[in-house]
Amino acid sequence: MDEAEMTGTRAQLALDLQQDRPFSAERFIAGSSNASARAWLARPRWPEGRLWVWGPSGTGKSHLLHVWAEQTEAVHFEAAALACDGDGALMVDGQALGPGSAPFVIDHLEGLTDEVALLHLLNRAHAAGRRVLMAARHPPARRAFRIPDLASRLRATVTAGLEEPEDELRATLLLSLLAERQLVVSQSVTDWLWRRLPRTGAALVQAVRKLDEAAMKRGTSINRTLAVDVLGPLLGEEE
Question: How do residues 133-143 score in pLDDT, each as one tens digit?
Answer without folding.
Answer: 999 999 999 99
